[in-house]
Amino acid sequence: MKSIFEKVKISQMSDSFITAIFVVLSGGFQDAYTYMCRDEVFANAQTGNIVLMSSHLFQGEFKSCVKYLIPLISFMIGTYVAEHVHYHFKYLEKIHWRQIIILCEIVLLFSVGFISQKHNALANALVSFVCAMQVQTFHKVRGQVYASTMCIGNMRSAIVSLFAYFQYKDKKIREKAIVYFSVIGVFAIGAGLGSVITKQLGVKAIWVCCALLTISFLMMFIDLELNEKRNSKNGRKSKDELKQKEPNTNPQKTNTHMD
Q: Which of 87, 133, 206, 232 is the most buried (most CB within 10 A)?
């Protein structure tokens, strides 16, 4: 049986586990980055930002609320923009609409590396915007719904799948559980790398995410190439079938013999 890492050509490259690895690594890295060097604000975990914002709000610390409110609003805008891009560019042939999103992410994250810590609010807004676009764009891996920038939903799905496997002994359900646990592990590795590298490089550490997303961007060209070959093959097959169905307009002359 082929492993979950080998079945890349079955679905879109953007939904493959290989592509998800680099996207999820970037998601974990971004969360660690904003927490470590951008005023302990979460780029991805907006639930945490809501809790902290509400805590300061009810304590009358209105100024402190702002640094958590900004990434929340930015996250919502990013989700809207990602859906807008999907709606208007999903039928492009030369480039996948998800690649447009990745290019935007790379440009924005690269610019964050030039923003000093005096302007952390702006940096957090941009990173949260990127995270929103990422979670809205990459939400399936091997056909299973997942989150590339947070873990709670993945943890729930992993345990539910594990329980189902123990009940029914279905190998497909086991693979599903493995995918979710793997995504969680990759996210944790990304967060760990983010904390270590951010301590070494400071605000410029975010450029590591640009490199990870660039790999995903390039890998998605494989999907476009495979689709082009598949469409070309199907086109040739359809032409052959039509030729076979065409009536014979030049019937052979038959010789008649008189008895």
A: 206
